Amino acid sequence: MTELERRNFLLWTAGSAFTLMTALFAKRGRAAVDALLDPSLGETQSPGKGNSGGGAKPASAPASGPASKPASKDGAQLKPGPQDDGSFVLDPANPPVPALKQEKGKPNGFYVKVGDDAVLVAQRDGKKGWVAIQAVCTHKKCTVNYEPDKNDFKCPCHGSTFSDAGKVQKGPAKDDLRAFATSEVKAPGGKTWVKIAKK
Fold first, then answer.
1. Nearest to 199 by CA among 184, 180, 176
2. Which CATH fold topology does 81-198 show?
């Protein structure tokens, strides 16, 4: 084997090893995030069961009797859960199984999954609208809680706080959380559902 062939072989081997290590790291990092997410997100709780992840009170009572499905702006039938456009519709009176394990304290809202993102959706103090923020702290990946009296989010593990727009207010976290758009949609029986979407 010539010196040039040996160098080419070593370069090819090093490049292949780097590619393989990068792929394994990416897969393992994604698996760690996926381990936090609950695969049974699409399921909803039966009436009468407790809501282990939702500390907030329902915005309205469940509808009684049969009801028609509400139509979205484009005329399509809307129902709670993931939507075709990547958003998520939350029925606060019948929230889904939490999308994340709760670390400490009460979330004072509902953990849902919007696309690949775990999101904490909470009703503002005094029922003045809704706020939704990335649910996993950028510091050490703990799940954040909503503090309605302060209208901000707090990581119970190390004390980082974030505004309702996701901006870091107090460290140790240095990176902001992603904020999501929320809008109320009318549902059967006079109920109000919340649509959560990427901004």
1. 180
2. Rieske Iron-sulfur Protein (2.102.10)
